[in-house]
């Protein structure tokens, strides 16, 4: 005989790709709950089929939540209600917090069955600091609103975690580079699925990588915290200038580096002219003149490294 669940609300995390990630406890709750509140009944029917059970489902999503919630709260007095989303942890960029709030207010039991969450899974893949992180969900898709949202958190000393779609990925990465400076980042895609990958690099290099090749599948962006607040060294300025000069004329290169490193544009312009000036013949290098590296020595214009478990052909 199946155990009977105490009345109340059960928040059940479900897989974000690999069905093997459904925990035994999640499976048990989904098998025994009186009703399962679902985002999309077709998606959850598939999960229930996978564990070989049939349970009554009730749609609970952004468009009907206000209407359905009071009835669900009333049912929790005598029935067990499991809440799931299509994938991952309910409430995380998914509906549910108002249901939890109202269930608590009504004095009902509220239990969580934790499990997969794309944001946390991506953090574990990116190789960036995890001691402090800020989850931003989806940024606004409109350019101006997105830039404002980025400006708001530019000085937060934490790793940032964002959800994004393939078609908007490159624009989002460019906006992040523009608003935050060119930090290290990771793009984690299709986590726990066949073509899982996590590509790391600077924001601008990642933006360039995806500009003409929007990736398929589901995506999480992870961005490193702002660097230590040490003033940029002469070497930092020189290497940023040398890199910028491979792409831009002198005045634009100086402008870009001035903005990126917070240094004086005119001084950088003068330095860029020095860096660009042709080298004297061997033995005649004057003091203070630094040669621009040859193409073989110069930093890669697209310093992206891909750590890929299985790769798609695209
Ligand atoms: N509640 C879910 C969670 O716990 O991760 C997130 C739901 S949100 C509506 C869906 C977004 O999560 C996707 O657009 C994508 O950005 C991210 N996501 C979900 N599954 C993913 C996966 N397997 N790999 C990468 N990102 C994923």
Notes on the protein architecture:
With 314 residues, the protein is α/β, with parallel strands linked by helices. Among the domains are: 8-116, Cobalt-precorrin-4 Transmethylase, domain 1 (3-Layer(aba) Sandwich), CATH 3.40.1010.10; 119-221, Tetrapyrrole methylase, C-terminal domain (Methyltransferase, Cobalt-precorrin-4 Transmethylase, Domain 2, 2-Layer Sandwich). It has eleven helices and eleven strands. It has helices at residues 24-32, 41-50, 65-75, 97-105, 118-126, 143-153, 166-180, 203-211, 234-245, 250-261, 265-276; strands spanning 8-12, 35-38, 57-59, 80-83, 110-113, 133-138, 159-165, 184-189, 197-202, 218-223, 304-308. It has a six-stranded mixed beta sheet with strand order 6-7-10-8-9-11, sandwiched between helices. Strands 3-2-4-1-5 form a five-stranded parallel beta sheet, with helices on both faces. Helix 6 links the parallel strand 6 (133-138) and strand 7. Helix 6 crosses helix 7 (166-180), helix 7 packs antiparallel against helix 8 (203-211) and helix 9 crosses helix 11 (265-276). The protein is elongated. The model is unreliable at 281-303 and 306-314 (pLDDT under 50).
């Amino acid at each position: 005989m199946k155990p009977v669940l105490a009345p109340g609300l059960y928040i059940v995390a479900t897989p974000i790709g690999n069905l093997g990630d459904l925990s035994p406890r999640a499976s048990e709750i989904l098998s025994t709950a009186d009703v399962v509140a679902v985002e999309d009944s077709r998606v959850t029917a598939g999960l229930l089929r996978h564990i070989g059970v049939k349970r009554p489902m009730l749609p609970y999503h952004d468009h009907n939540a206000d209407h359905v919630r009071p009835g669900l709260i009333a049912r929790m007095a005598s029935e067990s209600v499991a809440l799931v989303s299509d994938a991952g942890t309910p409430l995380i960029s998914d509906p549910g917090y108002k249901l939890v709030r109202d269930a608590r207010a009504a004095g009902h039991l509220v239990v969580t069955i934790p499990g997969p969450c794309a944001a946390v899974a991506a953090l574990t893949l990116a190789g960036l600091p995890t001691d402090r992180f800020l989850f931003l969900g989806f940024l606004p898709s409109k350019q101006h609103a997105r830039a404002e949202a980025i400006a708001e958190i530019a000085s937060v000393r934490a790793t940032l975690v964002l959800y994004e779609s393939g078609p908007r990925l490159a624009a989002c990465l460019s906006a992040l580079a523009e608003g935050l400076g060119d930090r290290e980042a990771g793009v984690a895609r299709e986590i726990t699925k066949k073509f899982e990958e996590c590509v790391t690099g600077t924001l601008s290099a990642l933006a360039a990588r995806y500009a003409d090749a929007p990736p398929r599948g589901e995506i999480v962006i992870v961005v490193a915290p702002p660097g230590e607040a040490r003033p940029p060294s002469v070497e930092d300025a020189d290497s940023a200038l040398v890199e910028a000069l491979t792409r831009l004329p002198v005045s634009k290169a100086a402008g870009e580096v001035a903005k990126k490193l917070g240094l004086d544009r005119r001084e950088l312009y003068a330095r860029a002219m020095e860096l660009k000036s042709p080298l004297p013949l061997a033995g005649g290098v004057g003091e203070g003149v630094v040669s621009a590296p040859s193409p073989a020595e110069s930093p890669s214009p697209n310093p992206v490294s891909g750590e890929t478990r299985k790769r798609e052909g695209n």
